[in-house]
Amino acid sequence: MRRHSDETPSAPDLSCEIAGVRLSNPLVLASGILGTSAALMVRMARLGAGAITAKSATRLPRAGHPSPILFDWGHGLINAVGLTNPGAEGMAAILHEARKELAPMGVPLIASVFAARVEEFVEVARILAAAGPDLIELNLSCPNVAAEYGEMFAASPQATAEAVAAVKAAVPCPVIAKLSPNVPDIARIARAAEEAGADAITAVNTMPGMVIDIEAGRPILTNREGGLSGPALKPIAIRCVYEIARVVRIPIIGTGGVLTGEDAIEMLMAGATAVGVGSAVAYRGLGAFRAIRQEMEAWMRAHGVRCLAEIRGRAHRV
Fold first, then answer.
1. pLDDT reading at 35 higher than 90
2. Which residue of 25, 140, 217, 245 lies most exposed, with the fewest beta carbons within 10 A?
């Protein structure tokens, strides 16, 4: 009997590392998407997410904005949830419960912090750090609560640096700065975050926008304006990641409009180390992570790519 000498090609290596924390694949559940309970976070890990970001926590509980808070406008989503969360102590309990199941699975947990003042960032970060997350993300860039909180930290290199430096001095785990696309020079903000001690950058948050119901003659969202995500955000996010990758050495979690494996490959070529996934769950369902990962593997096989390092930053080398 003839024996087959050809072996099945090994699967491409999709693993990556953020600030010493290993991910089995680069797909990170973005903050605000299903990171609201321990059960949901564990479920998304089982469905293929390489890391899980919890919803941003504030010092005190927030009810958020009244409905409607989310609208699909045909080219993406616009939302103004308003940072609904159970407060720092409540979120710490959720993180502790989630970590008990995520740690044995090898899926890192990222806590997320939002605050109005540097001292508040430190206070909330300390509370969440006690729950044992692998990393802490500073949400310096939420576009939907400006009326309550004023100018976002991510609008200023100095404010960004102050928040990052203060939290870095207060917690034992790596710190990620989440930046906004709605600034004149995002590379300058990212460089300030790195110089202040940030271990990684998440780029980007949603982009402020508005959709008006022309029959009613008023904005669709109760908050009037909201954050744009989904396909329309992707070219903006790609440009931001590309510009940041030119000036920093720390890892970037490229986030914004990633719906397919090809989108994720594009984000990596722009210079991202990992890829945030959020709106894809709304478009493709809970199987989005597994589908994107399979599409990435198929593309890598077809192009003879063995690991992510072979394509990371490729757009900078032409």
1. no
2. 217
> Strand order in 207-210's β-sheet?
70-72, 77-79, 225-229, 207-210
Identify which of 1, 25, 83, 77 has the alpha carbon closest to the alpha carbon of residue 292. Answer: 25
Tell whether 67 is in a known binding site. Answer: no
User: Half-sphere exposure of 272 toward its Cβ, with a 13 Å CA cutoff?
Assistant: 27
Question: CA-CA distance, 37 to 269, in Å (whole number)?
Answer: 33
Give residue 8's pLDDT band: very low, low, confident or very high (50, 70, 90). low
76 is in an annotated binding site: no
**Does 247 appear as a known binding residue?**
no
Tens of pLDDT, residues 36-88: 999 999 999 999 999 999 999 999 999 999 999 999 999 999 999 999 999 99
Domains identified in the chain and CATH numbers: 16-65+91-206+229-317 (3.20.20.70)
Residue 112 known to bind ligand: no
Say if residues 102 and 46 touch (Cβ distance below 8 Å): no
Among residues 212, 225, 255, 281, the alpha carbon closest in space to that of 73 is found at: 212
Q: Which residues are catalytic?
A: 142
pLDDT in tens, 20-32: 999 999 999 999 8
Q: How far apart are CA 96 and CA 88, in angstroms?
A: 12
For 148-178, letters b (16+ CB in 10 Å) and e give ebeebbbbbbebbbbbbbbbbeebebbbbbb
Express each pLDDT in 199-225 by its tens digit: 999 999 999 999 999 999 999 999 999
pLDDT above 50: residue 195: yes
Phi, psi (5° rounding) for residue 135?
A: -145, 160
- Does residue 204 have a cis bond before it (omega within 30 degrees)? yes
Largest Cα–Cα separation, the chain? 77
